[in-house]
Known about the structure:
Blueprint: H1 4-18, H2 25-33, E1 43-47, H3 52-65, E2 70-73, E3 85-87, E4 90-91, H4 94-107, H5 117-131, E5 136-140, E6 157-160, H6 168-171, H7 175-182, E7 192-194, H8 199-212, E8 216-218, E9 224-226, E10 230-233, E11 238-242, H9 250-264, H10 273-281, E12 290-292, E13 297-301, H11 306-320, E14 325-329, H12 337-345, E15 350-355, H13 364-372, E16 377-382, H14 383-393, E17 399-403, H15 406-426
Parallel strand pairs: 1-5, 1-6, 2-5, 6-7, 7-8, 13-17, 14-15, 14-17, 15-16
Antiparallel strand pairs: 2-3, 3-4, 9-10, 10-11, 12-13
Helix pairs in contact: 1-4, 1-5, 2-5, 3-9, 3-10, 4-5, 7-8, 11-12, 14-15
Amino acid sequence: MTSYDSAVAWLYGLEAAKGMDFKLERVELALASLGEPQRRYPCIHIAGTNGKGSVAAMCHAILGAGGYRAGLYISPHLVRFTERVRVGNEEIGQDEVVDLVDEIRRTATSRGIDLTFFEFVTVMAFVHFARREVDVAVLEVGLGGRLDATNVVDPIVSVITTIGLDHQQYLGDTIAEIAAEKAGILKPSRRAVIGRLRPEALRVVREIAAARRCPLWWLGPDFSLSGEPAAYAGPNWRIDGLRVPLRGVHQRDNAAVAVAALEAAKARLPIAAEAVRRGLDATHWPGRLEIIPGEPTLILDGAHNADGVEVLVAEMRRLAAGRRVHLLYAVMRDKDWPPMAEALAEIAHDVTVASVFPPRGESPDRVAEVFARLRPTRVVADAPTAFMRVIAEASADDVVLVAGSLFLIGAVYPKVDRLRADSRETRPAAG
């Protein structure tokens, strides 16, 4: 590849050409051809319908505060492709992306190992972490678990945050079926930390863990987070003075799961209580119930499934506190989005529908038909244009909510940064 842009375009071409095809054999063969880089460092492996990204970000921040050189692999990114692979606070470099694309194509693709987009990027991450000699890698599962490309590692601890209905066309139509896919990351004799699950998911996870002799710690019976400032109580740890900077009551569950995961990993990765406090306090995870103060107030949330929208609606009733909410919305075609749109309409004064990530993105005209039965609705297809129009038309004491897809958040985020910069430039100097 001659440039970063051409390398990333080639990678996205894989997604367009191959779509999703869940098998572990291709990733295993590619990694074998590259010297098994994923075996050179311990891993924390995190699955879940919601919350897995937040838990990964918290674990990564705490490990960094504890002095570890920690890798982080997430998906999707918001704005830059390089956000997906980080060592400490440093994203993978553009030149490193180019070099790795070329190397993996030479060593794997040229041998007939036909990787999908996510498989290719996962292999890139594993190689990058090995080259950077990380002490530990925190890995967010892309989709499901059992056949996800990340599920070729032997983690020191596995994590399942939540299990709900999402990606049914790939994972199954029931909570039990989806739970079986998520529980596919559980490894024999490896500790697993489990978040808040519905009874039907809990039963499946418990059965699979028992069959694999995988010891479990459960949120509630085995560990918890309570109080303000928060105190963590686990099987062996007691840590007080914790602050959870990510908004929403659900993030307290996520924080409890993250700290429990590190407690489970303490034999391999010992960490002090003060590092847990500092790392948790420093966690930043944009686009997840993120509030941008201003006039109007801006709230960004990538809720894209029923459970996520339920949490968002509950939080918006509290955060908006009777103020008018102007909703900017876009959603992926493969989501069961009409019930989510109806739920969001309950807290919206009006709705602007945009288009993102075609052809996976749903037609804005089709989405607008559902909203229009419930609230004043318009289509402004270009997401950045739609965002700036909603902001300009809102009153100072209103709330603008951007929701429906992380792809939408990513599309408008450069405009958000510009608004923040403009706000700083116009703010009166102190004194």
